[in-house]
Amino acid sequence: LYVSGIKYTGEYELGLRQGHGTCGWVDGTKYTGDFVQGKRHGNGIYEYDNGDQYTGEFAHDKRHGNGIFKYVNGNKYTGEYVHDKRHGKGTFKLVNGCQFTGEYVLDNLQTKGDVVLANGDHHAVDYTLDLDGVSTFVCENGKTYTSRGGETVC
């Protein structure tokens, strides 16, 4: 137990967390996985205090590589991360069954991708995000779907 209230169980080397271990914070956040020179590095599971969970690769204390982020509301992102941001190819699946697959840059969806609706319909889409946080998917057949805060009308 550290003075800050952080509790660590696992391997040490030269006074630093090294190898496999579990680190828990006072707020209920917990990480179980690999450490290198005191930092999350390798594979692990990070459980957030709000119930969200990330399982995947870490580098230098950041989500980096392939991972799965499960939101407490049931939504899920599976894909690539760079420096703690969704970056690269990924799929965001909503609890209602809709999913968007495409390229992400610094946590933002790019303009083209594929969407699968809750009824199983599959469409190539153009994607936009306005300043109010409203996502719009325009399918090749002209049909439009919108989303605000992850709640997509499909």
What is the H/E string? Answer: EEEEEEEEEEEEEE
Largest sheet: 14 strands, antiparallel
Total of DSSP H or I helical runs spanning 4+ residues? 0
Strand order of the largest sheet: 1-2-3-4-5-6-7-8-9-10-11-12-13-14
Low-pLDDT stretches are none
* Amino-to-carboxy terminus distance: 48 Å
The beta-strand count equals 14
Kindly summarize this structure in a few lines.
0% of the residues lie in helices and 66% in strands. By secondary structure, it is mainly β.
Provide an overview of this structure.
The protein is 0% helix and 66% strand. It is mainly β. It has a 14-stranded antiparallel sheet, with no helix packed on it. A hairpin with a 2-residue loop joins β13 and β14.
How are the elements arranged and paired?
Layout: E1 7-13, E2 16-24, E3 30-36, E4 39-47, E5 53-59, E6 62-70, E7 76-82, E8 85-93, E9 99-105, E10 108-116, E11 122-129, E12 134-139, E13 144-148, E14 151-152
Antiparallel strand pairs: 1-2, 2-3, 3-4, 4-5, 5-6, 6-7, 7-8, 8-9, 9-10, 10-11, 11-12, 12-13, 13-14
Keywords for this entry:
single chain; mainly beta
